[in-house]
Write a structure and sequence with these properties.
Blueprint lengths: L5 H8 L4 E2 L1 E6 L5 E6 L2 E6 L2 E8 L5 H6 L2 E7 L4 H9 L11 E3 L5 E3 L2 E15 L2 E13 L7 E3 L2 E3 L5
Antiparallel strand pairs: 1-11, 2-3, 2-6, 4-5, 5-10, 6-9, 7-8, 9-10, 11-12
Length: 162
C-alpha cells in the first residue's frame, strides 16, 4: 500500500466535520491578534486542558506561540463572515469593527461567539508544519441557544437535529 499524498489526505480528513473557531490573543504591546482554526480538542479534565493547532505559515503563529494566554472563540452558525475575516484579512485589520471583550487572561472574546474558552498556555509541541498549543482553561461559557458553525469537505455547514 502506498502512502497517500497531501491532497488525498486532505480530501479524506475533510470528511470529518469540525467546528470553526477563532483563536485570539494580544501581543506584547496589547494589540489583539486572531486567526481561524478548526483543530480544537479537549485533552484533559484534570487539569482542564485543550489543544489547538496553529499552522506555522499563519501570520499570527508567532504571536500566539510567544504569548502566555489565548482564547478560543467557537463561532456561531451565522458567523461565516468572521471565519473568513480571521483567515484572509491582513492580521492588522482583523479586529476592525469586530466587537469583543476580555476575560481573565486579557485575550479577546468575540461578542458573536457561540462559546468561548479563556486559556493560559501550558505547553507547546512541534508537529510538522503546525505547533500544538495546549492551554489550561481558566474560564469558559456557552450560549446553549446558539448553534455552532461547522466545516465539512471544504464548505460551511449548520447542524441539523438527527
Amino acid at each position: 500500500m502506498s502512502r497517500p499524498d497531501a491532497m488525498e489526505y486532505r480530501r479524506v480528513i475533510g470528511r470529518f466535520p469540525t467546528g470553526v473557531t477563532v483563536v485570539t490573543t494580544c501581543d506584547a504591546d496589547g494589540q489583539p491578534w486572531g486567526l481561524t482554526a478548526s483543530s480544537l480538542t479537549s485533552v484533559s479534565l484534570e487539569p482542564l486542558y485543550l489543544l489547538v493547532c496553529i499552522g506555522k505559515g499563519s501570520r499570527s503563529h508567532d504571536v500566539v506561540v510567544a504569548g502566555e494566554h489565548f482564547a478560543v472563540n467557537v463561532l456561531a452558525a451565522d458567523s461565516v463572515d468572521l471565519s473568513v475575516r480571521f483567515a484572509l484579512v491582513d492580521p492588522s485589520d482583523r479586529f476592525d469593527e469586530v466587537r469583543y471583550r476580555t476575560e481573565a487572561t486579557g485575550s479577546p472574546v468575540l461578542q458573536r461567539a457561540a462559546a468561548w474558552l479563556d486559556c493560559r498556555v501550558a505547553q507547546l509541541h512541534d508537529a510538522g508544519d503546525h505547533t500544538i498549543v495546549v492551554g489550561e482553561v481558566l474560564g469558559c461559557d456557552a450560549d446553549p441557544a446558539v448553534e455552532p458553525l461547522v466545516y465539512l469537505a471544504g464548505a460551511y455547514r449548520s447542524l441539523v437535529p438527527a
